[in-house]
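request received
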Amino acid sequence: MLDPQNLLAAFDRVTDYWSPKVIGAVNGQLLKVAKLKGEFVWHAHDGEDELFYIARGRLRIEFEDRSVDLAEGDFLTVPSGVRHNPVAEEECWVLLIEPASTKHTGEEQTPLTRSIEEQMK
Amino acid sequence: MLDPQNLLAAFDRVTDYWSPKVIGAVNGQLLKVAKLKGEFVWHAHDGEDELFYIARGRLRIEFEDRSVDLAEGDFLTVPSGVRHNPVAEEECWVLLIEPASTKHTGEEQTPLTRSIEEQMK
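response:
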């Protein structure tokens, strides 16, 4: 339990794009790492904020009224209920912080949807 | 609200050692940055985990039965109720994730104790 982990090394567990892996927890929030490339899917998380931290690369998050560009080392909390769509022109490594209950595609069921069990592997 | 921040740049707000500054939030957890140097104080946080992420430098966290060395990019969640004491031989920059209610010196009142109001400045 008290074993430190290295954030960048944790990405070794990630083999597929858009398929988060749980690497830690703090007070009911899960830390997940994911490799992103291309466009995800428009979705929102009702009642749950979602924090994005860019460990490597760049990510654009599109919102309904604008988009935000995140560079390496940047972070942003997407507030609960806000529809968003992450777009990575090139491979991007992100740390996500969100509750265990968060479905990464929101209520959208898509080929990219991964269950929490798959995210724990 | 939807303005991205850069983690390393956020440390510009930190002027004193052991004096955390709140830089963000996600689902009731606060993200705080702090610069550490020297030894802190033995304490625990009842009912609240505390995550340490090393943004720059190295940190040793002493526990009652052992100590853990964290290098740049490493992270560790100290579970609620576990007594610990951070020690930085050289200046170390940490990101902390903990609830708004967490007192950074636990129930210990020391000259290093900072109120949440001071941490929001």
